[in-house]
Design goal:
- It comes from Aureococcus anophagefferens.
- One of its GO terms (molecular function) is hydrolase activity.
- By secondary structure, the chain is α/β, with parallel strands linked by helices.
- It has one domain (12-325): Metal-dependent hydrolases (TIM Barrel, Alpha-Beta Barrel).
- The protein contains 13 helices and eight strands.
- The protein has an eight-stranded parallel beta sheet with strand order 1-2-3-4-5-6-7-8.
- Helix 3 (66-77) packs parallel to helix 4 and helix 7 runs parallel beside helix 8 (208-222).
């Protein structure tokens, strides 16, 4: 992938990355069962290279115990620019309030929670269901009983001053938009561009039907003013986008469409960095490697091509994230 002359923004808040040590941490047993290697804070710092990253947001990485993970990340935070923690909490669980209390007690940098929701049928089929959802096999946004339990926990976040990182598949976005409309006081950020999946399989063609479904869902989410979006994990949407001109143009257009829809003050670039460049870019959907500096140089080239002014660029690379996560 071309490094676009390695021009970077003046300041970056990396609002989505992960530290994992499943070989050392008992609370990361699920990751260990998946064969995930350690990815330490030192490796992340090395992967950042010359990027001017001033602050980061650590997002939960499927721990067995969200409180234990949050406490561990908090112990690393001051030495590694982590300014905010987004912890795991199953908001549908009967003990959700107790878990949120525990998170607040152990992690002063706690700003929000995430519970991975992308479900579109039993895991293992060729669909958008996330491996985390294989543990419960439930759709917490569209199935009435689990959705009602989840909504109770979701509604409680506002009083605690916590945001929600929404990771779901495009088919769930209309239900997510309806939930957000009922609870406008809960700040929400959509992870990973709304997770459109495999929009382009061959070298250049794209799946217009899938793009239209994603587009409709994102428009509904954009109508909720408390909702922001992370521009990240682009290889999940278009595997191989870093290697082929047609795919690169498609990804660039999808990101531009999202920025136009939400506005720069509701969008934030993020690395999703963990394990390696291929996984960070695609959640395992793509083997194409990319370095973090190359990724951000590409983002910078895009915003320059779009003619965005300095204020809009500051928002996309740092300002929106700093405001959303109260950094």
């Amino acid at each position: 992938m071309a490094a676009q002359a390695q021009k970077f923004p003046a300041d970056i808040v990396d609002c989505h990355h992960h530290f994992i040590e499943p070989q050392n941490n008992a609370f990361q047993g699920f990751l260990k069962s998946l064969g995930a290697p350690n990815y330490t804070c030192e490796q992340y710092a090395s992967d950042c290279g010359a990027l001017p990253i001033s602050k980061t947001v650590h997002v939960e990485a499927m721990p067995d115990d969200g409180v234990a993970e949050a406490a561990w990340v908090e112990s690393l935070a001051d030495r590694h620019k982590v300014a905010a923690v987004v912890a795991k909490c199953d908001l549908s669980a009967p003990d959700a309030a107790a878990v949120l209390d525990g998170l607040a007690a152990c992690a002063p940098k706690l700003r929000g929670v995430r519970f991975i929701l992308d479900y579109d049928g039993p895991f293992g089929e060729d669909n958008a269901t996330h491996v985390q959802c294989s543990l419960h096999g439930l759709d917490y946004l569209r199935d009435p009983e689990p959705a009602a339990a989840f909504e109770r926990g979701f509604a409680s976040l506002a009083a605690r001053g916590l945001s929600f990182d929404l990771q779901c598949c495009p088919a769930q976005l209309p239900a997510a938009a309806a939930l957000c409309a009922k609870h406008p006081d809960v700040a929400v950020v959509i992870d990973h561009l709304g997770k459109p999946r495999h929009l382009s399989q061959a070298r250049d063609p794209f799946d217009a039907k899938a793009i239209d479904a994603w587009r409709r869902g994102m428009a509904l989410m954009a109508a909720q003013p408390q909702v922001c979006v992370k521009l990240s994990m682009l290889g999940f949407a278009v595997p191989g986008w870093t290697e082929h001109d047609g795919k690169r143009a498609l990804v660039k257009s999808l990101v531009k469409e999202t920025v136009d829809l939400f506005g720069p003050d509701r969008c934030m670039f993020a690395s999703n960095w963990h394990i390696n460049g291929a996984v960070s870019n695609s959640d395992g959907a793509d083997s194409c490697e990319v370095t973090m500096p190359e990724l951000y140089a590409t983002f910078q080239a895009w915003v320059d091509d779009w003619g965005l002014d300095a204020a809009a660029q500051r928002a996309l690379f740092a300002g929106t994230a700093a405001t959303f996560y109260r950094l």
